[in-house]
Write a structure and sequence with these properties.
Number of strands: 10
Order of helices and strands: EHEHEHEEHHHEHEEEHE
Bound molecules: fe (ii) ion
Radius of gyration: 18 Å
Strand content: 15-25%
Distance between the termini: 18 Å
Largest sheet: 6 strands, mixed
Length: about 280
Amino acid sequence: MSNLVAVSDLHVSYQENREVVENLRAETPDDWLLVAGDVGERLTDVGWALSVLRARFAAVVWVPGNHELWSMPDDPVKLRGVERYEALVEMCRRLDVRTPEDPYATWEGPGGPVTVAPLFLGYDYTWRPAGCTTKEQGLAYAHQTGVVCTDEYMLHPDPYPTRDDWCRARVAETERRLEKCDPAVPLVLVNHYPLVREPTRVLRYPEFAQWCGTDLTADWHTRFTTAAMVYGHLHIPRSTVYDGVPFEEVSLGYPREWQPRQRPPGLPRRILPVTPS
Ligand SMILES: [Fe+2]
Ligand SMILES: [Fe+2]
């Protein structure tokens, strides 16, 4: 019996995490793997991890995290913004890894059929700290507390003027695609960020939520028939349910985060068939 499984935030610039990737195995030859972003920062690292995983799974579906879109000063690949994303998509095509730019595939295995929709949506600073009514206020507050996402320095939105402009364009385009999907076939939505704000309520630093998603997707899990929503980014692996829809945070995270946990990472997480509770 094959499985649709998921993982995110492999952050393979850390040697310990590379070892986790090397030990990730499919249970059956027909398993599909969803990779919900933050594989790494450098294209060579991302390519290494995705090719290792592609050799083990019948299909691999990737969406970008913020880290893939960072332009690190020491990366020989100097591309920024949309061009960087397009280079990642090109690399995935060479590796036979599916991306948000491909037609959505159908998982026909146990728990299916479902349409697997990899999404690249970004964030638009609408998940602001309490009392802040504008993006500028939210960012000013974060600078005051010192909790500022590195994206502000490394994730360039070119040719869009801002990261939120890029997000709004991606959301509009993605919404049009989802509207065209057959409503009789449920969706598994895969995005680096959760589609609703609730998962960010447990962040240690609530002001970090402005880099974690957008209000524009708040009703997507109910508007479109959704079997599961798979995300990462928060580095808080857990399963929750919103409006009857399972949301799965499937991150590995940094070694300092996962190593102290009592249990091993338990990855990849099975999405379908649903594990009986
Ligand atoms: Fe991450
Ligand atoms: Fe992230």
